[in-house]
């Protein structure tokens, strides 16, 4: 249920209502606007008696049942867009971030080279897979913890936050000690034990990719598993779904961006690399996603894509990545948004 406090409610009134929400066994989520304070009470569907109980509190103006099955992810609980920040910039609320780097960490030289040039051309986050879930057990599986150490070195040299994939609940604590953002890949988008584990840790944000056969409501319910454990720093990524079309690797659901942004306060990103499957089409899909309203993109680029040990065909050359960044910088002002800048440190 959504509890709307009376105009002028201050910290004391908020504290009173939050304490009552906790007393009846619900979890509070406070959203303070300029004129109105909303408190979501998250738990099992409230009874009519419970709704009336909260309506009777002197601090409360009204109580509205939350209609969506995803509660914490819904705009009903948080009507303002969530903005996530790092020292390198922010995403959400008009701020757009680019995460870029190789599909997989293959060597120190390869990763540091990519980190340096993606920063030079304007990316604000470094991506790279230390653990690689592959369709074939015989394909390159990543460097594991050595790859995490290389990513941490790249972060130290460039001051870019790092996003990397985590594949099992047992890995979460270890990966979170190196990374700033934990990526949940498409194949793990409904691994509920993993989602709960990344939700319980507070060191890193979570980047959740849409499963290749998930509806948007199922996607948000997966996000709800993370949010319900207390980690509210979640990015949703549309990365292409499986359809009958075989010309591309997957079908990028561009419509998912405006739909999700009308349903949730969470930042919505696009992964143009996986649906394209071919580097020639990556830039067009990235720009389409941004034009549709995406708050960021995560894109693959490699110093020598032809030698890449995974996803070689879809990784951009350095010059291609530089050209994409120039097109993004030209596009965003026309959309009333901007490529985010480093945050000022007090």
Automatic annotation (TrEMBL):
Every DAHP synthetase I/KDSA domain range: 90-324
Gene Ontology biological-process entries: aromatic amino acid family biosynthetic process
Keyword Transferase: yes
Main EC class the enzyme belongs to: transferase
Domain of life: Bacteria
E.C. no: 2.5.1.54
Residues annotated as domain DAHP synthase ferredoxin-like: 1-68
UniProtKB keywords: Transferase
One MF annotation (Gene Ontology) recorded for this entry: 3-deoxy-7-phosphoheptulonate synthase activity
InterPro entries noted in UniProt: Aldolase_TIM, Class-I_DAHP_synthase, DAHP1/KDSA, DAHP_snth_FXD, DAHP_syn_2
Protein name (record): Phospho-2-dehydro-3-deoxyheptonate aldolase
């Amino acid at each position: 249920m959504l509890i709307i406090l009376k105009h002028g409610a201050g910290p004391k009134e908020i504290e009173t209502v939050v304490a009552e929400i906790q007393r009846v066994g619900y979890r509070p989520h406070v959203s303070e606007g300029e004129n109105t304070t909303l408190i979501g009470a998250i738990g099992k569907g409230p009874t009519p008696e419970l709704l009336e109980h909260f309506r009777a509190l002197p601090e409360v103006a009204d109580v509205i049942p939350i209609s969506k099955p995803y509660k914490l992810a819904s705009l009903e609980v948080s009507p303002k867009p969530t903005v996530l920040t790092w020292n390198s910039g922010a995403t959400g609320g008009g701020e757009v971030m680019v995460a870029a780097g190789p599909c997989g960490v293959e060597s120190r030289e390869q990763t540091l080279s990519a980190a340096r040039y993606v920063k030079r051309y304007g990316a604000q986050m470094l991506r790279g897979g230390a653990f690689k879930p592959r369709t074939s057990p015989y394909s390159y599986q990543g460097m594991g913890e050595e790859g995490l150490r290389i990513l941490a070195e790249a972060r130290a040299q460039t001051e870019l936050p790092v996003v990397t994939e985590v594949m099992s609940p047992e890995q979460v604590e270890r990966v979170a000690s190196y990374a700033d953002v934990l990526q949940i890949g498409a194949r793990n988008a409904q691994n509920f034990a993993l989602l709960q584990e990344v939700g319980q840790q507070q060191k890193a944000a979570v980047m959740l990719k849409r499963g290749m056969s998930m509806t948007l409501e199922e996607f948000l319910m997966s996000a709800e598993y993370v949010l319900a454990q207390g980690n509210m720093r979640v990015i949703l990524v549309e990365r292409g779904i499986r359809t009958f079309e075989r010309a591309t690797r997957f079908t990028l659901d561009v419509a998912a961006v405006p739909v999700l942004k009308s349903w949730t306060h969470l930042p919505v990103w696009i992964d143009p690399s996986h649906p394209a499957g071919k580097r020639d089409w990556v830039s067009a899909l990235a720009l389409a996603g941004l034009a549709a309203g995406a708050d960021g993109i995560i894109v693959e680029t490699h110093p020598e894509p032809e030698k890449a040990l995974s996803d070689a065909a879809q990784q951009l050359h350095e010059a291609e990545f530089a050209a994409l960044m120039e097109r993004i910088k030209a596009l965003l002002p026309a959309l009333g948004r901007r490529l985010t800048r480093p945050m000022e440190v007090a």
